[in-house]
Amino acid sequence: MSSADEGRMLASLQGGELDLVISPRPRGYRATGLVCEPLYQLTPLVYARRAHPLVNAQSLLELQAASWAIAGPSVSGPVDVLREAFAVRRMRPPRVAASCPDYASLLHLMTRSDLLGVLPHPALLDGAPQDQIVPLRLREALPRYEMHLFAQTRSRRVLGSVFARLKEQAVLI
After folding, report:
1. How far is the C-alpha of 12 from the C-alpha of 27, rounded, in Å?
2. 144 near 41, Cβ under 8 Å?
3. Nearest CA-CA partner of 154 in 29, 16, 17
4. Hey, what CATH class is 6-41+145-171 in?
5. Where exactly are the structural domains of the chain?
6. In whole angstroms, what is the distance from residue 79 CA to residue 39 CA?
7. How far is the C-alpha of 93 from the C-alpha of 75, rounded, in Å?
8. Pick from 129, 130, 100: nearest CA to 117
9. What's the pTM?
10. Is the per-residue pLDDT at 40 higher than 80?
11. Exposed/middle/buried for 97, CB within 10 Å: 0-12, 13-18, 19+?
């Protein structure tokens, strides 16, 4: 298993270092020799610690001056929902004060600070202390994105049962 931005993972897949990749499909991505199947759609939400001063904010405009933490490096493309959410509203992107290596670190930091964060799925809250992190009820939605399953075309037959099981599990998400 590997965790990196989708560009690096797809390059590793094409180079034969990985057997399959589950990631968002980069904009304009056209890779030869790979099959790509949609798995599920994610609806990211903004989260904060329960006692955050902006926990009752109702719009992105109210959050523009806040400081944010992100999981992983800021990546251009469909996974940078924070930057995209502000850009489509012609707003200056918010200040990203911290970049965490993973969502568990992000949650840990958010419980101990006034940093806001975006989580792509509530299942990631399983690592947070009970009810310390809550979603903000904003009028505006963050951009949704679809996760895809990528594999080399020639390995599709060999990995067919893996594809089927992953697609079955994706229905439960």
Report:
1. 18
2. yes
3. 16
4. alpha beta
5. 6-41+145-171, 44-135
6. 16
7. 14
8. 100
9. 0.78
10. yes
11. middle
- How far is the C-alpha of 93 from the C-alpha of 81, rounded, in Å? 11
80: tokens are: 């940078």
Same fold, 6-41+145-171 and 44-135: yes
User: Among 64, 67, 68, which residue's Cα sits nearest to residue 90?
Assistant: 64
Neighbour tally for 151: CB within 10 Å:
22
Residue-wise pLDDT for 1-17, tens only, equals 666 777 788 888 888 89
Sign of CA dihedral 117, 119, 122, 126: negative
The token pair that represents 140 in the structure block: 């505006």
Beta pairing, strands 117-119 & 45-49: antiparallel
Give the dihedral of Cα atoms 137, 60, 122, 72; nearest 10 deg: -160
Interacting residues of 173 by C-beta distance below 8 A, sequence separation 6+: 40, 121, 123
